[in-house]
Amino acid sequence: MDLESRARAEHPDELRLWLRLMTCAQIIEKRVRMGLRFEFDSTLPRFDLMAQLEKFPKGLKMGELSKRLMVSGGNVTAITDQLVAEGWVQRVDVEGDRRAWKIQLTKAGRAYFNDMAKAHETWIVDSFADLGTKEVQSLYKLLSHVKQSALHSLEDSGAVNLTEHI
Amino acid sequence: MDLESRARAEHPDELRLWLRLMTCAQIIEKRVRMGLRFEFDSTLPRFDLMAQLEKFPKGLKMGELSKRLMVSGGNVTAITDQLVAEGWVQRVDVEGDRRAWKIQLTKAGRAYFNDMAKAHETWIVDSFADLGTKEVQSLYKLLSHVKQSALHSLEDSGAVNLTEHI
DNA sequence: TATTGTTATACTCTATAACTATA
DNA sequence: TATAGTTATAGAGTATAACAATA
User: Treating both helix axes as pointing N-terminal to C-terminal, what angle do B133-156 and A133-156 enclose, rounded to 10 degrees?
Assistant: First the structure.
């Protein structure tokens, strides 16, 4: 067995872990997408954008949204346009920089998001229903470690601009 | 505080856990998608389909692929068509049922997939580089529990057909 | 010149429904 | 009639590159 093959054989655990992590994420995401679609006529990217705005009542600039959501600027424009057209978010002038603006939830948008967030929480709690409190806490800690590790790796690979604000 | 609000307040841990889990999955997925795209001119759904075929050298039927990948039949047809056109997989007659066929990796497809899988493993190992062996193993066990729990929840919500073979 | 955001474009993935061929 | 798979269609999300306006 050459060096490379040996190096591979030494690391099957991480691969199994990744497949399991991804499967878990996919299953729960499937549940969330279904719920958003059929109960709220919405989608996950739209929910994620509104969730960011809910965390920042003063609003976020397009560029900030782009970094937080890890997607391109053109993409943020497209999703924001939809949400503006439906009355859930609004563009507000930024004092001192006429190129930019803040995106905020409207009053209706806050109410709409709160309804979704409540349902969303139910789906999530259901998804983890078989786990005990300690398991949930252990997982959270371990995944915090994973997040740091994975972010370093992603930055090293050249995706610097997407990771500044996570 | 009413009952509903109290019920929500009692379950913030699962929500935090889900957000962290999803973020980890997204970060690593970002890394993998970048690699597949720039180093192999491919995509994650294509990789996933080929990974299934690699696990079953005798081949899988379209319907089996659909269930395993948790996507629609039309979708599997589209991706399979691409991979057939590029010579990585082939459709083989199924004895005794002229409606169906098995999808298999071609010889070239196996070689191509092995190259991708090797690189893929490197990206994954890098993503988990900061974790110790015990952390990796603990995570794997905990996520196995999550998988079962989330699958039950997804089935209860009415997505039965997608979960038979996972 | 650099930055913020939009527009135009194209591509991938995805689901649904109607359809063909076979069981 | 039911099943396996395809086709046609539509729509969401995504990135890139060119662009306008402003800093």
Answer: 110
Question: Cα–Cα–Cα angle for B125, A162, A80, nearest 5°?
Answer: 135
Please state the φ and ψ torsions of residue B92, each to the nearest 5 degrees. Answer: -120, 135
A79 in contact with nucleic chain D (CB within 7 A): yes
**Which residue is nearest to the C1' sugar atom of C13, using CA?**
B75
| Phi and psi angles of residue A91, each rounded to the nearest 5 degrees, phi first | -95, 130
Enter the pTM of the model.
0.86
What is the arrangement of strands in the sheet containing B101-105, beginning at the earlier edge strand? B60-61, B101-105, B89-93
Per residue of chain B (166 residues), give pLDDT as tens: 444 455 556 668 999 999 999 999 999 999 999 999 999 999 999 999 999 999 999 999 999 999 999 999 999 999 999 999 999 999 999 999 999 999 999 999 999 999 999 999 999 999 999 999 999 999 999 999 999 999 988 888 766 444 433 3
Which of B 55-94 have CB under 7 A of nucleic chain D? 61-64, 73-74, 76-78, 80-81, 91, 94
CB of A154 within 8 Å of a chain B CB? The answer is yes
